[in-house]
Amino acid sequence: MADRVAVRLRVNGEDMAVMVPPYKTLLEVLREDLGLTGTKHGCELGECSTCGVLVDGKPFLSCLAIPLDLEGREIVTVEGMASGSRPHPLQVAFAELGAAQCGYCTPAMLLTAMALLDRNPNPSREAIKDALSGVLCRCTGYVKIFEAVELAASRGGHPG
Amino acid sequence: MATLAEEFSIVGKSLTKPDAFAKVSGQTKFADDLAPPRMLYGRILRSPHPHARILGIDTARARSLPGVLAVLTGDDLPVKFGILPVSQDEEALAREKVRYVGDPIAAVAATDEWIADDALDLIEVQFNALPSFMSIPDAIAGGEEPIHGRSNVHKAVALEFGDTEAAMRASAHSREDVVFFEGNTHLPMEQHAAVAQYGADGKLTLWTSSQTPHYVHRALGKVLELPMSRIRVIATPNGGGFGGKSDIFSHELVAAKLAIVTGRPVKITLTREEVFYAHRGRHPVLMKVKTGFSKDGRITAMQFQSFLDGGGYGSYGVATTYYTGALQTTTYAVPRYRFEGVRLFTNKPPCGPKRGHGTPQPRFALEIHLDKAAEELGLDPVEIRRRNLVKPDSRTVNWLRITSCGLEACINKVVEESRFLERRRAMPPGRGLGFAISSYLTGAGTAIYWNDMPHSEVQLRLDRNGGVALLCGAIDIGQGSDHILAAIVAEVLGVELEDIQLTTADTDLTPIDLGSYSSRVTFMAGNAAKAAAEKVRDRLFGAAAKALHCDADDLLARGRRIFRRSRPEDGLGFAQAVQLAEAESGVVSGTGSYTPPRLAGPYKGSGVGPSPAYSYSAAVVEVDCDARTGEVRVPEVWIAHDIGRAINPVLVEGQVEGSVYMALGEALMEEQTFRLGLHKFPSLLEYKSPTALEAPVMHTYLVETIDREGPFGAKEAGQGPLLPVIPAVANAVYNALGVRIDEVPITPDKVLKALNDKEKRVGPKSVPAFTFPRLIESDVPEEWRGK
């Protein structure tokens, strides 16, 4: 049995403490130790951004991070997007416009878009493309995703 | 609620699909998200050799590693399997030899993933490496030890419909092209995963990201030698499929066996690299096409040859082979047609079905071939196609039944909207426009295993509050099949989408659907759902008619009410009607089934190609080429698709746009190629796929032809729209630079090479010498006799 270390993380506004092997990635700890399976894995090599979360408001590849390095930082996963049972406007727009087909890249796509809207509430199509370019999607051809980000932006982009 | 004046309340509307909010909130449980208590982690040891005999496997050191609970080798799972009954050539773990790098050899279950990985390193395998066959010519040339049996020829077919030689001789004009389509892979964002659990009651449950749970169920029964009644397969929502999860995979069988051996749940999730090697993707296909034309550009005869590089096992390859020759005739009226195809075994990961299954390759060849022929005949690219279009309600020379056909409307739409004809002659430097058309199946007309039973079945059960439980074996792979089922039932019963509770793809609970492949679910499961809902509705109408003292024929179900057409205020709540029916005769339930009509022609091999309906697409692609770097960009695409009827337009558009995207990846960058048996690009960084930055402006037009056999007239959208885009890119590059790139992907190096080539072309020059079997000369349908 591997040695374990205590890790304290702040995830979705909640303080969490877990005992994990020190080499486990943030992705693995979120999914396997904290039950936050909304964060997905696509390559575990930092190539596809499927595992994207937000750390201090910025898109962050959870598959490349060691949780011990993130103590004291603010981590947000897709489970933290809604306000209670009220979904974030981006989630509503993605659902309405069919921007989530299989739904596997969706959590990372949403969080990356949320970081964009927080920084730039009315992004151009080019800015949206640029911001989302690291997150691979194989289903949609990205079109509905761009439209959903624009729709959410037009509705204010923040939970009302 | 729709007004009475509207034909439908739910069908035809861009409503939010039932699984959308679970997906956007991260609540959808994919297979790897499952972790039953006491779960073990499984890992598979794979071959480092493309072709080798296994002399011995020593698992003793792995077994003694603390934390390892089981080690399996091929002797633990000796029964062979394969997706097609004619190709039972795979073993869950190879016993005597390995046939590609990545072929599974042994497996372990351990308490964590790291121990499982360490255990694999402790398994010692002795190999005797054999010469390998890495290409189509290699495989044809053969060697001392073929990959399977006595020859590397997996399947060879030769069919002829009418005398093509005579027709060719009598043609005013003919031309021949040799074209190559490189292999590529599905690349779903979700890696395949399976979780198996074996209960104390002797029942096995497998959760798996599979497009075909019914076929997995059958294979588990066969390989594990268990009655199917003791096996439950639950397909989890697929994080992308595209055909890549429609085979039977080693890890599914191995996870099940490990769970049986250890008595604990076992999960196997493939790494991204393993997904590349599991493959079953697009076959590399070398093709030769020769077409005869009359003076005015009408096709008189066509001869098509295809050579498929199949990889190490059969997979769907027999079907793929036929598909490379089947659908040439569903877009163009070809009066005389010959098809010869051969699939070769090679020492590479097995190829199988990817979006368009065996038809994007010949479509690519055919559409660039026609563009070239048009130029020789002095016709524009649109006109040559118009002169040869199939007609609705006709039969092709190879006996395929065409019903609804919106091809002409699709062509008109994209040609007009893009101003193709006006603009193509006056494009700015480096810019070009290309055009192509296509057709695809709406579900394969025959099942993978021969039987007379329905292809899709749906069961409904109503509760006293007006809720509707809908059970169906279909699995949503992102295409929106959950929505289609719910929408059809809600429409017929006059309830809302949220009243439908879906249970899908669970072999213990749901009646059969053959799977999410061949673009069959909307049409087949949709028809089954419609039939089930109509039965239930009739019962509700019977009970309501008594209460309302009217004729059941006068009743309408809409807006959660059942009411009289003639006096809409005269009605009952839907739940009230359910209660009346339940009081009258018990559980309110109903089933519906769909069996496609028997459409196969009178010749051997006619089982591949028939479909109850064909979808049609037309595309115009604009390219922006850099003659200095060879780079090709696609700024804009116009695509029209004959969907029959869009049950949910936003979902159909999503399928069309996703198809365009995937086609552009295949056309410009994606390739699954090998060096010394090793994949050249087995990662998401090296295997190039389009990002958001490459996404073109897409103009998507849905053409509705209301197919008479489709549910509410619907056909398919998931695969067909991919087909015209790839050749349209190649044709656009020609329009832009005057070079012909007769193979995909159209990479910058090929463009530069073509610009410097005397003939301004890159592509294969010939096909290898190969003796095809004797032609099976089929009779032709009545309407083609004597033509």
Helix coverage percent of chain A: 25-40%
Largest sheet: number of strands, sense, barrel closure of chain B: 7 strands, mixed
Number of strands of chain A: 5
Q: How many angstroms does the end-to-end distance of chain A come to?
A: 48 Å
Q: What does the largest sheet of chain A look like?
A: 5 strands, mixed
**What is the alpha-carbon Rg of chain A in Å?**
16 Å
Helix/strand-derived class of chain B?
alpha+beta
CATH topology of the largest domain in chain B: Aldehyde Oxidoreductase, domain 4
Rg over alpha carbons of chain B: 27 Å
Bin the strand percentage of chain B.
15-25%
* Shape annotation of chain B: globular
Which homologous superfamily in CATH is the superfamily of the largest domain in chain B?
Aldehyde oxidase/xanthine dehydrogenase, molybdopterin binding domain
Low-pLDDT parts of chain B are none
Strand arrangement in the largest pleated sheet of chain B? 3-5-1-12-9-10-11
Q: Percentage of helical residues of chain B? A: 25-40%
List descriptors.
A: 160 residues; alpha+beta; Ubiquitin-like (UB roll); DNA polymerase, domain 1; 2 domains; 5 helices; 31% helix; B: alpha+beta; Aldehyde Oxidoreductase, domain 4; Aldehyde Oxidoreductase, domain 3; 3 domains; seven-stranded mixed beta sheet; 34 strands; 25% strand; globular
Description:
The complex is a heterodimer of chains A (160) and B (787). With 160 residues, chain A is an alpha+beta fold. Chain A has two domains: 5-78, Ubiquitin-like (UB roll) (Roll); 89-154, DNA polymerase, domain 1. Chain A is 31% helix and 16% strand. Chain A has five helices and five strands, in the order ββαβββαααα. Chain A has helices at residues 26-33, 89-96, 106-119, 125-132, 143-154, and strands at residues 5-11, 14-20, 52-55, 58-61, 74-76. Chain A has a five-stranded mixed sheet with strand order 2-1-5-3-4, sandwiched between helices. In chain A, helix 2 (89-96) packs across helix 5. The longest helix of chain A is centred in the C-terminal third of the chain and has 14 residues, at 106-119. Chain A is globular. The model of chain A has no long low-confidence stretch (mean pLDDT 96). Chain B is of the alpha+beta class and 787 residues long. Chain B has three domains: 20-27 and 453-594, Aldehyde Oxidoreductase, domain 4 (2-Layer Sandwich); 38-130 and 189-240 and 245-278, Aldehyde oxidase/xanthine dehydrogenase, a/b hammerhead (Aldehyde Oxidoreductase, domain 3); 285-446 and 601-778, Aldehyde oxidase/xanthine dehydrogenase, molybdopterin binding domain (Aldehyde Oxidoreductase, domain 4), CATH 3.30.365.10. Chain B contains 19 helices and 34 strands. A seven-stranded mixed sheet of chain B has the order 3-5-1-12-9-10-11, with helices on both faces. A seven-stranded mixed sheet of chain B has the order 32-8-13-14-15-7-34. In chain B, helix 9 links the parallel strand 14 (299-309) and strand 15 (337-344). The longest helix of chain B has 28 residues, at 521-548. Chain B is globular and about 80 Å long. The interface between A and B is large, with 59 and 58 residues.
